[in-house]
Amino acid sequence: MESLVCVPVVLPLLAAGVKLAIGGRLRRLQSLISLVTLGVSLVVSALLLVTVDAGGPLVTELGGWPAPIGICLVADRLSTLVLLVSSAVTFCVMVYSVANAYDVQEHDAPMAIFHPAFLVMVAGVADAFLSGDLFNLFVAFELLLSGSYVLLTFGGTESRIRAGATYTLMALASSMLFLIALAITYAATGTLSMAQLAVRFATLPEQVKLLVELMLLLVFAIKAAMFPLSAWLPDSYPTAPAPATAVFAGLLTKVGVYSLIRLEALLFPGGPISTLLMWVALATMLTGVLGAVAQTDIKRMLSFTLVSHIGYMVFGVALSTAAGMAGAIFYVVHHITVQTGLFLVTGLIERRTGTTSVSGLGGLMKTAPLIAVLFFVPAMNLSGIPPMSGFLGKLMLVQAGLAAGGPLPVLLVAGGLVTSLLTLYAVAKTWGKAFWRAPREATTGTVVESEEYTGQEPTVTTATLPVALSAPVAALVALGLSYTVLAGPLSALAQRAAVELMARGPYIEAVLGRDR
């Protein structure tokens, strides 16, 4: 099974190379290659999760060089769980993009650009989840940047180029800080292997450990859009095509959260910055949700809720307990699925009506009942309505916060409850204006690429959506609901992953071996 660990990374890269060689020819073959590649990655991810849950972590040493000399990929409960969910999400998004034929509709940009860039980004996500080496984690982020920049600027419109420039500048700044942190780490320890760093950091002076921890926290705060480094996200994501926006919102910020979970548990257990992380989590939750309440565009509203709910995950990490980590892991799985589904539904709304501004919408409950249901269910899940997975994830975090005790965790619990109520208000307001009110009450307007309402006559299409376009969105909504039905096994798996993560021994032993 060790040989399968590299498949989710290598296979999409090989497929991207093949698709670039094919170019714009054989369009059906292009789509088939993408779907088969992501389908195989999904099956392999499921096999890896079952294997590591039963028998412990799996390690693949790249090039045959043993760790810590060489770079290795490590599959444990945490990495394979998020890898499985990300594989399911990217497969659904690819089905959506093939059905919607974005290569034709988005300003005639060819399939030869969209699909390889998407596969390179998927490979970067998988590499980040499986990486057992800090430098390889840096490489994974660069893969993400190269693929996601192409997707973000897909079509070459002015707003997308502007958003892409903002996104790239922030990504390059974080990459530069990451390289500096790697240089300091290697100078202090002589290694970048995470397993070996977990051993050697114990002998370092506290000041050096604190410096490295703060620099890595800064890097991942930018990647995950944590306050106060989150302002770039609402201005970047809404301009991209719906498939790109959906996978950005669902996955890319979670790569930063995953890296934070991994390093805080493995390298800096019980570190001195837990208090700082709690304040960051509280500020991220509240500033994000207040921004969401003020929005009149669905994409921007969802972008701000994305920021606010990152705070829940950081909350679990900051507690530095197995219960807190389990809550964070459960919430990551929930949020990847629900947020991706919501952005895809927003793409359906934009395709049908020509706008995502609530000022230009109305009556969709009557004219597009399927879209209305597909939006309502994950929106309520995101808000944390019982007994959905959003409620269960928040409940796990609340219980972990109350068990930790102290005024700051209790304050975080209160902040999380307020954030949940304001999220419900934001999505309910959007639902009422866009779906429930009568069409004649809707203010006429058109929004192009999520810009604010212009006061012009609306451009509305009423064509029936293809079944192939609605099916992947419905699948994601159903997957989000399945977390409620499977809440017991999923929460138990998250707890086992958290215990394994906090123990550190199984990970270190799997990579270095007992003798090393």
From TrEMBL:
<keyword id="KW-0812">Transmembrane</keyword>
<feature type="transmembrane region" description="Helical">
    <location>
        <begin position="328"/>
        <end position="349"/>
    </location>
</feature>
<feature type="transmembrane region" description="Helical">
    <location>
        <begin position="33"/>
        <end position="59"/>
    </location>
</feature>
<feature type="transmembrane region" description="Helical">
    <location>
        <begin position="167"/>
        <end position="189"/>
    </location>
</feature>
<feature type="transmembrane region" description="Helical">
    <location>
        <begin position="210"/>
        <end position="233"/>
    </location>
</feature>
<dbReference type="GO" id="GO:0042773">
    <property type="term" value="P:ATP synthesis coupled electron transport"/>
</dbReference>
<feature type="transmembrane region" description="Helical">
    <location>
        <begin position="137"/>
        <end position="155"/>
    </location>
</feature>
<dbReference type="InterPro" id="IPR003918">
    <property type="entry name" value="NADH_UbQ_OxRdtase"/>
</dbReference>
<dbReference type="GO" id="GO:0005886">
    <property type="term" value="C:plasma membrane"/>
</dbReference>
<dbReference type="InterPro" id="IPR050586">
    <property type="entry name" value="CPA3_Na-H_Antiporter_D"/>
</dbReference>
<dbReference type="Pfam" id="PF00361">
    <property type="entry name" value="Proton_antipo_M"/>
</dbReference>
<feature type="transmembrane region" description="Helical">
    <location>
        <begin position="276"/>
        <end position="294"/>
    </location>
</feature>
<dbReference type="InterPro" id="IPR001750">
    <property type="entry name" value="ND/Mrp_TM"/>
</dbReference>
<keyword id="KW-0472">Membrane</keyword>
<keyword id="KW-1133">Transmembrane helix</keyword>
<feature type="transmembrane region" description="Helical">
    <location>
        <begin position="80"/>
        <end position="99"/>
    </location>
</feature>
<dbReference type="GO" id="GO:0008137">
    <property type="term" value="F:NADH dehydrogenase (ubiquinone) activity"/>
</dbReference>
<comment type="similarity">
    <text>Belongs to the CPA3 antiporters (TC 2.A.63) subunit D family.</text>
</comment>
<keyword id="KW-1003">Cell membrane</keyword>
<feature type="transmembrane region" description="Helical">
    <location>
        <begin position="370"/>
        <end position="388"/>
    </location>
</feature>
<protein>
    <submittedName>
        <fullName>Na+/H+ antiporter subunit D</fullName>
    </submittedName>
</protein>
<feature type="transmembrane region" description="Helical">
    <location>
        <begin position="301"/>
        <end position="322"/>
    </location>
</feature>
<feature type="transmembrane region" description="Helical">
    <location>
        <begin position="111"/>
        <end position="130"/>
    </location>
</feature>
<feature type="transmembrane region" description="Helical">
    <location>
        <begin position="408"/>
        <end position="428"/>
    </location>
</feature>
<feature type="domain" description="NADH:quinone oxidoreductase/Mrp antiporter transmembrane">
    <location>
        <begin position="131"/>
        <end position="419"/>
    </location>
</feature>
